[in-house]
Amino acid sequence: MSWYYNWTSSTGALARPKGVDYVPMIWGPGSVTSGELGNAKKQGKELLAFQEPDLPSQSHMTVEQALDLWPKLQRTGLRLSAPAVASGADTPGGWLDRFMKGAAQRHLRVDFIPVHWFGGDFGPNAAQELRSYLESVHNRYHKPIWLTEYALTDYGHGTPRYPSGQQQKDFVASSTKMLNGLDFVERYAWFALSTGTSPTGLYDGTKANASGQVYQHAG
After folding, report:
1. Which residues make beta-bridge pairs with 184?
2. CA-CA distance, 202 to 216, in Å (whole number)?
3. Coil, strand or helix at 213
4. Alpha-carbon distance 141 to 145, whole Å?
5. CA separation, residue 46 to residues 29, 49, 150 (Å)
6. What is the pTM (predicted TM-score) of this model?
């Protein structure tokens, strides 16, 4: 592991592992405070901004609200991500597209694009589907990409559906190889680490499970 984040501006009670970068996040409008921004400036060189503003269950922001708050994030001097939309980062007229156009009109700075992807196809084409999405986002905005959440999870039928153990191991191997070959992808982070958090977890407690072992060796 070379970097991590936890959806907040500081590491909290956990000590940062030696030699590992922590990347702070300004999660939503309530986090745009002098205290949170001050915490973020102490942590590192990059700043993640606004967690899934396109979802009511997450930071739930309008494009105009995000643009109005942006100068405060920009004044941290940190290398700054776009807001991390849940989906449709490549969609013309979508939330991110409207934000990026507004940022350009207001001469605001956006240094890289964070992307989330959860694939519902658990077959051998899943890694290529992820690649196509990343390429589409990059071709639209011509900025480096951080894939800050990704896994195989089908949200299309109400209750989430998850892959089998073998399907997940196959995807971990194929997607990691693919991601390591894309020069515009600067960083990527699997979702999530612990099986106590999600069935897609890579660890059981502190021990890497079968998928986690594949991830370790593939990286």
Report:
1. none
2. 10
3. helix
4. 10
5. 19, 10, 20
6. 0.95
Q: Cα–Cα distances in Å, from 217 out to 71, 88, 131, 181?
A: 41, 31, 20, 16
Answer whether 150's CB lies under 8 Å from 130's CB. yes
* pLDDT score recorded for residue 35: 96
Give, for 3, the enclosing helix (H) or strand (E): strand 3-4
Q: For 78-120, give the DSSP string.
A: SEEEEEE-SS-TT-TTSHHHHHHHHHHHTT----BEEEEEEES
Instruction: Give residue-wise pLDDT tens across range 87-145.
Output: 999 999 999 999 999 999 999 999 999 999 999 999 999 999 999 999 999 999 999 99
Q: What residue type is assigned to position 12 of the chain?
A: G
- What pLDDT was estimated at residue 50? 98
Question: What CA–CA distance (Å, rounded) separates 64 from 79?
Answer: 21
- Give the whole-number percent of the chain exceeding pLDDT 70: 100
Tell me the CA distances in angstroms from 31 to 15, 56, 161, 173, 212, one per residue in order.
22, 16, 32, 36, 32
What tokens appear for 44 in the block?
Answer: 């590192």
pLDDT tens digits for 39-52?
A: 999 998 999 999 99
